[in-house]
């Protein structure tokens, strides 16, 4: 199966999260991102939008339920990262949150590409 336009849009949105995160790691800040709280907020907002785009119109099959569970875990991790941004664990939480966003995208794209057996067609 081929990936669709919504998969490309979601990938671009995740890239829009990754680019400032890499800049943040290199420089310690980016425009509009001065600390872990700002980076977590960018990840939350664009990550939710990317998830909504990639899931738009998908049937909620058995694997879709697992994807929703993973999405909820990623969302909770993002909120925890946002609220604990002033603690010593902020950078580690932020790195785990950024990795979980990428993992969520990879799972969705693999599902849409038909990698998982019994997956519903996502056109």
From TrEMBL:
Q: Which UniProt keywords apply?
A: Membrane, Transmembrane, Transmembrane helix
TM ranges: 7-26, 38-56, 63-83, 89-107
Q: What is this protein called?
A: Uncharacterized protein
């Amino acid at each position: 199966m081929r990936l669709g336009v919504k998969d490309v849009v979601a990938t671009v949105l995740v890239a829009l999260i990754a680019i400032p995160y890499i800049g943040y790691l290199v420089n310690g800040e980016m425009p509009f991102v001065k600390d872990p709280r700002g980076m977590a907020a960018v990840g939350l907002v664009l990550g939710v939008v990317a998830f909504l785009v990639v899931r738009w119109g998908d049937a909620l099959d058995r694997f879709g339920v697992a994807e929703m569970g993973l999405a909820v875990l990623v969302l909770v991790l993002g909120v925890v990262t946002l609220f604990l941004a002033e603690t010593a664990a902020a950078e580690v939480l932020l790195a785990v949150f950024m990795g979980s966003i990428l993992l969520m995208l990879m799972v969705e794209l693999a599902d849409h590409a038909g990698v998982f057996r019994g997956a519903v067609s996502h056109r």
